[in-house]
Amino acid sequence: MGKRIFKIGIVDDNRMTLQSLTELITYNKQFEVVLTATNGQQFLDKMSNAPANMIPDVVLMDIDMKIMNGIDAILHGKTKYPQVKYLVLTVFDDEENLFDSIKAGANGYLLKDEKMSVIFDQLINVVLHDFAPMSPSIAKKAFNLLSRVPKENQTKSILFEGLSEREIEVLQLLIEGLNYKKIAETLFISINTVKKHISHIYEKLHVSSKVQIMKLMNK
Question: Between 9 and which of 59, 66, 68, 128 could a Cys-Cys bridge form, CB atoms 3.0 to 4.6 Å apart?
Answer without folding.
Answer: 59
